[in-house]
Write a structure and sequence with these properties.
Elements (H helix, E strand, L loop, with lengths): L1 H10 L13 E2 L3 E5 L12 E8 L7 E2 L7 E10 L10 E7 L18 E5 L9 H12 L6 E8 L2 E10 L27 E5 L9 E4 L2 E10 L7 H19 L16 H14 L9 E5 L10 E3 L27 H4 L9 H4 L4 H15 L5 H14 L1 H10 L17 H22 L6 H5 L7 E4 L6 E8 L3 E8 L5 E10 L2 E8 L6 E8 L4 E9 L1
Parallel strand pairs: 2-8
Antiparallel strand pairs: 1-4, 2-3, 3-5, 5-6, 6-7, 7-9, 8-9, 10-12, 10-13, 11-12, 13-14, 15-16, 16-19, 17-18, 17-20, 20-21
């Protein structure tokens, strides 16, 4: 599969007979970049260009002959992206600079002042909406996601299409709001934050990276601060923290609230990261462009790992035609069972689902979000309103880049019109949501959550139980497990085959609605021995 995708990347040239577009006015902000004579923006090194932005405010028309009233100054700019560089419509990263070439924090298009920015040019996503939809949802969930504004871009007088001005992910009060790590923060609480790391592919300018102790195809990288900005004590601390988290998840007490996974992660962020990756069935999900951050122990989230911010969803929501990414069924965290790539999904996304309390928390969070920002009406309202806002600009975009009705790597669906592409996106999300309604694991029952399973050799709860209860137990080796329930005469009244289980914590639902009230004895058996026994009282 890797070879096939690489071959298509080489064969795909994106050559079209491009029409010239004469942009005179727009309801979107207009960004104008002028390259210095004899230089071209490239991905090898940033060059200094002039940039002006025309923006007359929300609802106003922006004319190409208006003065540059939002920004008029220097930028240092380069082509950015990895796989996306195959497309003729490029994306760019740039820094705003003052006259002396120093970084200059400014507000662009009403976004909080900073100097690191991205001009993202959506190309295979013909709706122009998949990334911003994801960032909007993440914000509605209560997390930071890059602020953004659609705009139209001109470079050296040539119209380049609809772009999205994005905040680059970095530590900042108005971005990922974690502590600034100084070079002399080398001990105690000051050493513990803040760090932004990511799981990503080994492409582009990677620099230093390290791999999981449990899978050398899971690659971690420092994002902010970058590795060369860190003291060796600081980089070692963060590597060791992630290693300890993985050890805790892998270990026999992984569900223990004190020494297990709960001691290392902020669970709601992990629920929400999982939900958005799975909703989008993101073909690069979990294994690429997957960010996490950590504040100081005395700071936000008590220094636990926070999943996010979300990033790079252009090949999501049914927009990739390989590795089952276009299906509305199945789990994306099982990607490694479907496709063999050089980057793998961290084992913890699947292992966490074997925790009863984690599963139940995930289920509750999904149900909560489905009644709010993930309600189909809410999602469709955002998509329709943004598509309406882009009506004139996207016509110009697809005049410049005439790809409507054309296959672009890696479209799973090719609509004959923009409206067909838009309706496909909405239908995919609705169908995928319904599948997740039926298949998100866990039970959202506050009474059950209050009696959440605490790891020990074996436990049943609630006890006494009514029609439904639960049994949880710890296995210290892989084994085929069966449960038998006996009445007080020694007669087997219930048998449950749990199948082959791996070492670790497990919990299962027990349906006892066909049993009469009374006392029963349960036995949990392995292949060659009885592992646990105890009493169950049925009301």
């Amino acid at each position: 599969m890797k070879q096939i995708i690489t071959l298509f990347s080489i064969l795909f040239t994106g050559f079209y007979s491009l029409a010239q577009v004469n942009l005179t006015s727009s309801n979107l902000p207009i960004v104008v970049i002028t390259q210095p004579s004899g230089q071209t923006i490239n991905d090898a090194a940033r060059i200094v260009c002039d940039m002006g932005i025309i923006y007359n405010g929300i609802g106003a028309t922006n004319l190409i002959n208006n003065p540059y009233n939002n920004y008029n100054g220097k930028i240092a700019i380069e082509v950015r992206g990895s796989t996306s560089q195959q497309y003729p419509k490029k994306s760019y990263g740039f820094e705003t600079q003052d006259a002396l070439g120093a970084n200059n924090n400014v507000s662009l298009l009403g976004l909080p002042a900073e100097n690191d920015w991205i001009l993202y040019g959506p190309y295979p996503d013909k709706t122009l909406l998949r990334d911003v939809l994801t960032y909007d949802l993440s914000k509605k969930f209560g997390h930071y996601a890059s602020n953004w504004k659609h705009c139209e871009l001109i470079i050296d007088g040539q119209y380049m299409g609809v772009y999205i001005l994005l905040e680059r992910i970095k530590r900042d009060h108005d971005r990922v709001n974690i502590a600034h790590l100084d070079p002399d923060d080398l001990a105690g609480d000051s050493l513990t934050g803040g760090y932004i790391v990511k799981v990503d592919k080994l492409t582009g300018e990677v620099g230093y990276s390290w791999t999981s102790n449990y899978n050398n195809e899971v690659v971690f990288q420092f994002h902010d601060p970058e590795y060369d900005e860190l003291n060796p004590i600081q980089s070692s601390y963060m590597e060791n923290f992630i290693g300890e988290f993985e050890d805790a998840v892998w270990g026999p007490q992984f569900d223990d609230p004190t020494v297990g996974y709960s001691a290392y992660i902020e669970k709601t962020s992990f629920y929400d990261f999982f939900i958005l990756q799975e909703l989008g069935r993101t073909v690069d999900g979990y294994r690429s462009s997957s960010f996490m951050h950590k504040d100081k122990t005395s700071g936000a989230w008590n220094g636990k790992l926070v999943a996010g911010p979300m990033w790079d969803f252009n090949l999501s929501y049914g927009n990739a035609d390989y590795c089952d990414a276009d299906l509305t069924t199945g789990w994306q965290y099982n990607f490694d069972e479907i496709c063999d790539f050089t980057s793998a999904i961290p084992f913890w996304w699947e292992k966490l689902l074997s925790s009863p309390s984690y599963r139940n928390g995930l289920r509750c969070r999904w149900d909560e979000l489905r009644s709010g920002p993930l309600h189909t009406d809410s999602v469709n309202y955002f998509i329709d309103s943004m598509a309406n806002y882009l009506t004139d600009a996207r016509i110009r975009n697809f005049t410049k880049w005439p790809i409507i009705g054309q296959y672009v790597n890696w479209n799973a669906f090719v609509g004959a019109t923009y409206e067909e592409d838009l309706n496909f996106l909405k239908q995919y999300i609705e169908t995928r949501s319904l599948w997740m309604d039926a298949n998100i694991p866990g039970i959202c029952d506050l009474a059950v959550e209050e009696q959440a399973f605490v790891p020990q050799y074996c436990k049943v709860w609630p006890n006494p139980m009514s029609d439904v209860g639960y049994i949880g137990f710890t296995l210290f080796k892989n084994d085929a497990i069966q449960l038998e329930l006996y009445d007080l005469t020694g007669r087997v009244v219930l048998t449950e085959d749990f199948g082959k289980l791996v070492a670790g914590e497990h919990a299962f639902e027990l349906s006892t609605d066909e049993l009469v009230s009374g006392n029963y004895i349960y036995k949990v058996k392995g292949t060659s021995e009885q592992l646990f026994t105890g009493k169950i009282v049925i009301k």
